[in-house]
Design a protein that fits this description.
Mean pLDDT: 93
Structural class: alpha/beta
CATH architecture of one domain: 3-Layer(aba) Sandwich
Strand content: 5-15%
Helix content: 40-55%
CATH topology of one domain: Rossmann fold
Number of strands: 5
Low-confidence stretches: none
Radius of gyration: 15 Å
Shape: globular
Distance between the termini: 21 Å
Strand order of the largest sheet: 3-2-1-4-5
Largest sheet: 5 strands, parallel
Number of helices: 6
CATH class of one domain: Alpha Beta
Length: 130
Amino acid sequence: MAKNYLVDTSIIVDYLRGSKKAASFLNSQNSVVISTITAAEIYQGAKNKKELNILKKLINSFKIVPINANICQLALTLLEKYTLSHHLLILDALIAATVIENKLTLVTGNYKHFSMIKKLPAQKWSQEKI
């Protein structure tokens, strides 16, 4: 059974920086989605209107998984459990909750931000060749 991946901002940034590995990964998957959080982080990185339009085209090529009430509630639960012990941040909690709620697998270059969440299917991303 093929996995359905949610990629985080680090993979999109690698792609934008010309990473062949990121391009190959994104182009080889049948089902890659991003969180609303990732879309927002990518937009926030735009330096000008021209760049924002380019980023908007890229973001619109992905299915964007919206945040709903269940995701918000799960993110609060994750923050309650992990913010003091592991310094889990709100945006990472929302991404993790989105993955769990939608039965996806997270692909992240920031694996340590999520590694403490045992019920989170996650795959470590690195720019090194596999």
